[in-house]
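hey so i finally got around to running the thing on that chain from the lab meeting. sorry it took forever, my laptop kept dying and i had to restart like 3 times. anyway pasting the input first so we r on the same page abt which one it is
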Amino acid sequence: MLIAVGTLYFFHGNPGSKPRETAGKKKILKLTFGHSMPPNSAIDISARKFAEVVSQKTDGGVTITVYPNQELANDHKMIEMAVEGDLDILLTPTAKMGAVFPALQYSDIPFLFPHKEDAYEMLAGEPGRLLLQQLNQFGLIGAAFWGSGFKQFTAHKEIHSPKDFKGMNVRIMKSPLIMDQFREFGANPIPIDFHETYKALKDGVVEAEENPIVVIYDMKFHEVQSHIIISNHAYLSYVFTFSKKNFEKLPPDIQQILITTAKELIGYEREQIDTQESDVLKKLAGTGIKITYLTDDEIKQFQLATKGILYKYAPVIGSEVITATLEYLKRKYKYEAGDDIIIGLNADMTLGASISGMAIERGMQIAAKEINESGGLLGKKLIVVTMDHAGNTARSNDNIRLFAKIKNLAAVMGGLHSHIVMADLKLIHLFKIPYLLPWTTHPQVVQNGYEPNYVFRLSANDTYAGPFLVEQALKRTRKIALLRVNTGWGDINEEIMANYLKEKGLNFTAIESFNLGETDFHEQIERIAGSGAEIIIMLAYTKEGAIIIKHLFYGKKKIPVISHMAITGEDFYKEVKKELNTIDLSFMQTYSFITANNNRSKEFVKTYMNEYGVKTPQEIFSPNATARAYDLVMLLAEAVRQAGTLDRTAIRDAMETIQHYEGLTKMHSPPYTKTQHDALDEKGYFMAVFDKNGAIIPIGEGKK
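ok and heres what got predicted. didnt touch it at all, straight out
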């Protein structure tokens, strides 16, 4: 018998001919079928049933060899093989197929389907049809959706709310949507190959994972986890596909048999899952593992935590698919998921500036919670939807395009990077999206030349920050050096500060620059020391700033440093904790929860501590970003109320006419006008230091 992956073998005949007896010999078509599940799993039993039924229907003219358990390759490789024609039939999780066709992440949207029957109806109905027909353009023929049942959580402890996941390392399959799901819980999602998961759990690399109950048992995850949490949070669907390259070579009657059989066996495969789930739950009950069922109230907490995912992925999955699903849920359950008001966050959430992104997100979430508990906006809930640009300009642009497609989008908030925000401005004004900035300090992000201007900033402006930093240095010496990053942000700050010094009849003793990613600052620091400088003004991000401090620590001359606030966009203190015992470092800030004593600040701190499990205001990292993001959401809410509509142009106009707002950052009277889109000036700036625990402490408050 001839067998080769992805090759169609015929005996004495034309590949396009119908299998038949010829001169005593039968033409036999041999196909290969790959999947990742273990032998005797519901998927494997049903795959072998498919091979059996096809053989019967073709009177033995088609034989199918099933390769389970990733015997051929992992799922991602098998997808490539099918597209290239090296594998005939593929059954793979839709989440993994999402790497080729992102819309197939549909069934992984958490808590979208109240019951498995709803998932069945949607996947077999219009949403499923729309998704399957689009696979053709990716080199695959989509036949049907099979599945492994609802996914459940397993963990090393009891889980009753999203907060219980905070800080946990969780194994996930490689899927952006699933990564977002666990990130919304405050967990650290880590993609690990399916067959490496047991070892990762056993070794403590990860502490939790998600899978259907039968998979949990088959893969023995219950042996290395203490708790199973029945959450039914998403349906693990598998898409049954054929290699388009090979399928189109088959006779039409064989094509029809293959497609029809895949659909006919949907019910059979589901019966296998149901039977095995029932048996497995009985077996698990005797293993000592604790099985917990989430209550309706607990499920609502998870639904609320992940609600933004539906809106974020709606443009990716397709408006027709999501609309059809929401209409079904509305008819059956009076579900109103599509009626919320959306505020987006477009920031670095995973790489160098992720601390700033998280701080902004938390400020936004607390503001949205407060607004929703007070009745919402225009009778609707306000939902924060986060997209990660990971410090990449092109990805940030793509995020803005996706945000523009989201129904009821009121505004988008930006992150730390000035150059990324500036690259977004064309799209922001093309789509007429109010862009709220709680961190970016480059003057030109606001003075951008667009009319009308859709950018509103509540942060430092380097037009004022540069002179402020110079004045702080002049309080100590007239011998000042500048060490700055070689970017547009560094350029403009050098110009502002140098001009300010010239007005005072002074110059920097030295001006040194460096590139992003640079790791050796020896020469720059030597030249600065040789210039006679007695203090350095530093314009750097966290990574390079930390290396500069280390170079100063090991150098001959421990020159004090005054820094821009950009270093606090990541965990700077962690990198230089030892060195700061010797190096005198202070940096600019605009807000502190430690010194703020008004009622709004006290209530905010109380909410923050409850939501994120911290015990003191000092533990609120990046307080600048958190407070300013909160205030910007509150200002947006006021603009929406005044506009009385979700028309973004009307919201933009209303932002310019708000008269008073007493926020965390200050009393704004008014925050913005038609000619002024900066809500802070140098009156709100102060200098701060890190205390021995890494908390940001305003100078004058003492190192606690």
